[in-house]
Amino acid sequence: MSARIFRRNATMWSGGLLLAALLVGGSALAGEAPPVRLDSTADHSKYKELQQEFASGPELTKVCLSCHTEAARQVHRTKHWTWDFLNPENQQRLGKKNVVNNFCISVPSNYAFCTSCHVGYGWKDASFDFSAEENVDCLVCHDTTGSYRKLPGLAGHPPYKDVEIPPGSGKIAKAVDLSRIAQKIGKTSRDTCGACHFFGGGGDGVKHGDMDSSLASPDKEVDVHMDATGLDFTCGTCHKTASHDVPGSRYTPVGKDKGGAHMRGKEDKSNPATCQACHGLSPHKDAGMAAKLNHHTDKIACQTCHIPAIARGGVATKMSWDWSTAGRLTPDGKPMIKKDDKGRVIYDSKKGDFTLGENVVPEYAWFNGKVSYTLLGDKIENTEGVTHINKLGGSASDGESLIWPMKVFRGAQPFDAVNKTLVTPHTAGNDDTAYWKNFGWEKAIETGMKVAGADFSGKVGFIKTDMSWPITHMVAPKEKALGCNECHTRGGRLDRIEGVYIPGRDGNSLVNLIGWIVAGATLAAVALHGLVRIVRRPR
Amino acid sequence: MERIYIFTRFERFWHWTQALLVIGMLLTGFEIHGTYHLLGFAKAHQIHGIAAWALIILWVFAIFWHFVTGEWRQYIPTMKNVDVVLRHYAWGIFRGEPHPFKVTRRQKHNPLQAQAYLMVKVLINPLLWISGLLYLYYNELAARGHHFDLASIALAHTIGAFLMLAFFIAHVYLITTGETVGAHLKAMLTGWERSDEKSAR
User: Fold this and answer.
1) Is residue A529 part of a domain?
2) Could you give the ipTM of this predicted complex?
3) How many domains in chain A?
4) Domain ranges in chain B?
């Protein structure tokens, strides 16, 4: 699922330029001093320990840890490793291994596939040793070659020998060269983060809508900060990481950052990835409209105006997923795939029907950063209505909310029709119960629920679900930010936002009625008066 | 026939600039209110804001002028002869009777007219001004701990706008009720008013 199909052109370019500059600089000093790397204090290609063949990832990790003694145990403390997170605000047990979503649904019973996006090696089932330091995968985040890849089904391992994937497809995934990658190890990049985060939900751009492979090397139009020939931010520029713990999580987002810009020397434990963490609370500086725009920041998230659409980079995002239509086979019993006129998959027997969208206008909602999930075992009250996979808190009056843009992902997914709970189907696997091989929900869900340790009645139904994704990436250049007219009108973008008076949208209908009656009556009276004057005009 | 110089250069400048600004603000204001789409909210908002400040500056000068010249006395309300003027508009005007009120330099406006202008000055304008300034600055006020509800501010401002619109309609009509249809308009343009009861209509 994490196949890295793009190359990091821009960073390679800038790296190449840097190298060339260094070589020129070096030769100018003709024999006085060898060229020096300025991007790091260590050139890993010079380490004897790395100049050897490695049979497996863990073997290499042991060598990494011989110098970076604390690194693995730092990683062990993070969500990237545990896939487990206790929300301190509402005590919900979240994390990738616990939540159920309406994309690929859930991780348990599908570990060997899902963990191709785990920062470790070997998580194939519950027996995985989370305390083993050598199980940490350094390369997946620190590769600079663009050649490292982890394949679904290998439980977080990269291919150590050439493999055909999917089996029978004729497509060969080359074995990774661990030694070469290790010698070129470096900082994280848009590509390394993107190897998983661009492909969430099972493919490029599927899940987020504001993160896809177009951010590997975006131009200014797509992302004003990551602009590969401009500011060239990496993910880590905003998600400023210390001790391997990446800040800015979707489980506990910041709805309204009142703290203002971070400052060196001033201790600030707030999320460094918010807009305000750099831009402060009065970000508009241009003369003219600046003051009025700054007034909007107490009600409107920066993202609402500055990210005018979802999926702006040319990669479509999934907008809906109907699992209830999965399992239709060709007359000879084979799974099938249907594509739209742009060649995008809109039906897959394994997964059901999809709709996709590019440049989608977001939905808007008050959001205070508080998120509660419908988890496995939670009773679904209304099986006819829409179940919210995650429910976002917020209102006009709580003082903690701003109006945010959202990708609302809608779908239908299997549930336990008797116990009225979400279910965790066993989808991926080459066995007798995996849905994607056998197309039987009952067996797939039975297996999945057993692994998850949850009750299953055996009766499968389908419920409508939705899931909200606050949009925060792909910030457009300021010239492309939304203008006043988008919202200050009836039927505009914020038409359904409650609790706030929006000039151009709102008004008091009684006052309007009386006002027009008064103005109309005045007009009628003077018209009548004038008419009588004309008629009675003395000749 | 007698001609008197009734509107000084400043008064005429004040009147016509105000007329232009008020018409502009009515047009843009009702667009901001969402009544129609003409220029788009952004442009309407921009013009409305500029016109507001221009009008405020104009009014500061006008108020100053009223006090130093003593012209504010023109607006001291009286009920004397109001009935006569009302009778004229309701009856006499249709019979071709001349206006019962004789314009003088000391009393430029008939008592009904003076009352109407006074209402604009002490009721409609302050309502629009105060609500308009609150509309512009409610964020700054909130930051200083004075919280105003934007919907209420907008409501007051809208009421003011409807009253101004009604005044504007009546005013534009009533200027045609001079000795000739164009007489009052001409006076406001040139400053000179014909004041001869016997002159034929």
Assistant:
1) yes
2) 0.92
3) 1
4) 3-18+46-194
3-state secondary structure A186-239: CCCCHHHHHHHHCCCCCCCCCCCCCCCHHHCCCCCCCCCCCCCCCCCCCHHHHC
Extract the runs of DSSP E, i.e. beta strands, from A419-478. 421-422, 460-470
Q: Does A520 touch chain B (CB under 8 A)?
A: no
Query: Does any CB of chain A come closer than 8 Å to the CB of residue B155?
Result: yes
Instruction: Closest CB to A489: pick one of B34, B154, B170.
Output: B34
Strand A402-416 to strand A317-322: parallel, antiparallel, or no bridges (unpaired)? Answer: parallel
Rounded to an integer, what distance in angstroms lies between the CA atom of residue A115 and that of residue A109?
A: 11
CA dihedral A215, A220, A224, A227 (to 10 degrees): 50
- Contact list in B for residue A514 (CB cut-off 8 A) is 162
Token pair of A243 as six digits: 């001790």
Supply the pTM of this predicted model: 0.90
Q: Classify residue A397: in a domain, yes or no.
A: no
Q: In this structure, is the dihedral angle defined by the CA atoms of residues A418, A423, A428 and A429, taken in order, positive or negative?
A: negative
Residue A523 is assigned to a structural domain of this protein: yes
Q: How far apart are alpha carbons A56 and A68 in whole angstroms? A: 19
Cβ pairs A/B, distance under 8 A: 88
Best interface-test mutation with A: which of B99, B165, B181 has the largest number of A CBs within 10 A?
A: B165
Nearest Cβ partner for A504 among B34, B95, B150:
B34
pLDDT in tens, A256-312: 999 889 988 887 889 999 999 999 999 999 877 898 899 999 999 999 999 999 999
The pLDDT value given to residue A18: 53
Closest alpha carbon within chain B to A504: B34
Closest residue of A to B162, CA-based?
A: A515
Residue A157 in tokens: 């391992």
- Read off φ and ψ for residue A246, nearest 5 degrees: -80, 120
Decide if A453 touches B, using CB distance below 8 A: no
| Mean pLDDT for the stretch of residues B85-98 | 90
User: Parallel, antiparallel, or unpaired for β A337-339 and A345-348?
Assistant: antiparallel
When scoring A493, A528, A533 by the number of chain B Cβ atoms within 10 A, the one with the most, hence best to mutate, is A533
Q: How far apart are CA A18 and CA A37, in angstroms?
A: 9
Is the minimum CB–CB distance between B32 and chain A shorter than 8 Å?
yes
How close does chain A come to B65, measured CA to CA in Å? Answer: 31
Q: Which amino acid is at A240?
A: K
A528 in any annotated domain: yes
**A103 or B97, higher pLDDT:** A103
d(Cα A173, Cα A154) in Å, to the nearest integer? Answer: 12
Identify the CA nearest to B163 among candidates B138, B112, B129, B133. B129
A50 token code pair: 């790395």
Q: Which residues of A228-238 are buried (b: 16+ CB within 10 A; e: fewer)?
A: beeebbbbbeb
Residues of A in contact with B45 (CB under 8 A): 484, 488, 503
Quick one: how far is CA A438 from the chain centroid? 31
Other beta carbons within 10 angstroms of residue A175's beta carbon come to 12
**pLDDT of the residue at A6:** 44
Cβ-contact B170, B164 below 8 angstroms: no
Q: How confident is the model at residue B96 (pLDDT cuts 50, 70, 90)?
A: confident
A296, A506, A528: best mutation site toward chain B, by most B Cβ within 10 Å?
A: A506
pLDDT at B87 over 70: yes
Specify the DSSP class assigned to residue B94: G
Which residues on chain B are in Cβ contact (under 8 Å) with A532? 94
Chain A residues close to B166, C-beta within 8 Å: 518-519, 522
Residues of chain A with pLDDT under 70: 1-31, 538-539
